[in-house]
Write a structure and sequence with these properties.
Radius of gyration: 25 Å
Strand content: 35-45%
Order of helices and strands: HEEEEEEEEEEEEE
Length: 205
């Protein structure tokens, strides 16, 4: 009986050791911490004015604003001058303020597509500012720097989202805003639209 008990204890100890080794060797999935994340899945109705907490939806020409759109169960943000009646439409979708001094290695990434864009003047610019005061009146007074995002050109497939690429923000300091600025109008040559989704600002942990 004593020999049986000893043998049983040895098996238990061996199993515990194997279990510990297995736990130590388990690989955890990669985790990229986010400063900002927005997928526009806010439950808003399709084709309505975009109203997302913390984000600014402003215009500096014409009357059109960024809108919520839904397709195949996916919500995203869209701006177009189609049938606006305005010679020029300029719409700004601007992120909440982001503090770039609290971490290192920040980068921006998002999904983007275009629809019926046939002229380069019908454009989407991705911009950053560290001196905008948050008001619509002072958008043009702020300093906005273009970011090197990969934007679909006139030959891109309509409504087919592509990756913007990782855009380095690590050289910027202070409090920043990211803006998505579309220029278009009601004329057929410039009445195309742009769609954005899954906006993320991450950093190195």
């Amino acid at each position: 009986m004593r020999m049986f008990k000893f043998f049983g204890l040895a098996l238990i100890a061996s199993a515990a050791l194997v279990s510990c080794v297995g736990d130590d060797d388990t690989e955890l999935p990669n985790y990229t911490p986010l400063i900002l994340g927005q997928d526009f899945e806010n439950g808003a109705a399709d084709n309505t004015i975009l109203d997302v907490t913390g984000w600014s939806n402003f215009v500096t020409a014409g009357a059109m604003r960024w809108k919520n759109q839904t397709y195949s169960g996916n919500n995203y943000a869209e701006f177009t001058g189609y049938q606006s009646g305005d010679a020029t439409n300029i719409g700004w979708l601007i992120s909440p303020a982001v503090n770039l001094d609290e971490q290192e290695g920040e980068s921006l990434k998002f999904d983007v597509s275009q629809s019926y864009v046939t002229d380069a003047s019908n454009s989407l610019e991705v911009l950053i500012s560290t001196d905008w005061d948050g008001t619509e009146a002072n958008i043009n007074a702020a300093t906005w720097t273009a970011l090197p995002a990969s934007i679909p050109g006139t030959s891109a497939t309509y409504f087919e989202f592509q990756d913007s690429g990782n855009i380095d923000l690590s050289t910027y300091t202070g409090t920043a805003h990211i803006a998505f600025k579309v220029t278009g109008g009601t004329a057929a040559a410039i009445d195309g639209g742009y769609q954005i989704d899954n906006v993320k600002i991450s950093y190195q942990n």
